[in-house]
Amino acid sequence: LQQRLPGVGLYNCYGQSEIAPLATVLRPEEHAARPASAGRPILTVETRVVDLAMNDVAPGEHGEIVHRSPQLLTGYWDKPDMSEEAFMGGWFHSGDVGYFDEAGYLYVVDRIKDVINTGGVMVASREVEEGLFKHPAVAEVAVIGQPDEKWIEAITAVVVTKEGVEVSEAELIEHAKAHMAPFKVPKRIVFTEALPKSTAGKILKRNLRKELS
After folding, report:
1. What's the predicted TM-score (pTM) here?
2. CA of 206: how far to CAs of 128, 143, 161, 186, 209, in Å?
3. Residue 4 within a domain
């Protein structure tokens, strides 16, 4: 996009509705050095990456992204338990996994609920999806965990192929082995004509879990 529109400045913004909606920004002049980053917190937002005990994790280590800001919601309407959980420790819990680099730039890894526990190892579904996207036959992909007696959760990829292109489950698994660590390779590939999506275009992984359970 930058090559086609060299005169246009691109901003990578991260946030959610609860923070109205902006938390961090990667400015146009910062893209070249950190294209995968969500940037740094804006002036009115404090952002941390913490462990389960609300301690800051070291740069490069994964944890939950939490925020504090006057522009945050004060709670969810008529849902006191949900509000209390969201603001545990005095910070708003985003539900996202991420990390800071040494320079204080934020990287968003995955949604906590989408992280897969495979054999006791936590795998971000997004990392598996990015590896599968490198195959020329893949148009769309969503990776979920399915209950499994051996693996706790078996990594399962639901794939939409490009029109007129054929690829087998074995081919995609071999591709995955060449592009990611062995423990991230899907145990199963499921082909479908379309992925379930919300009106905003987000893939509804909860629907996939129900359909494949």
Report:
1. 0.83
2. 18, 11, 21, 18, 5
3. no
Q: Give the count of domains, the chain.
A: 2
Whether pLDDT at 6 is above 90: no
Please count the CA atoms within 13 angstroms of the CA of 170 that sit on its side-chain side: 0
DSSP character string of 86-128: HTGGGSEEEEEEEEE-TTS-EEEEEEGGG-EEETTEEE-HHHH
Write the CATH number for 46.
Answer: 2.30.38.10
Same structural domain, 142 and 175:
yes
Closest CA to 99 of 82, 124, 72: 124
At which of 79, 111, 143 does a domain end?
111
pLDDT-based confidence at 193, cuts 50/70/90? very high
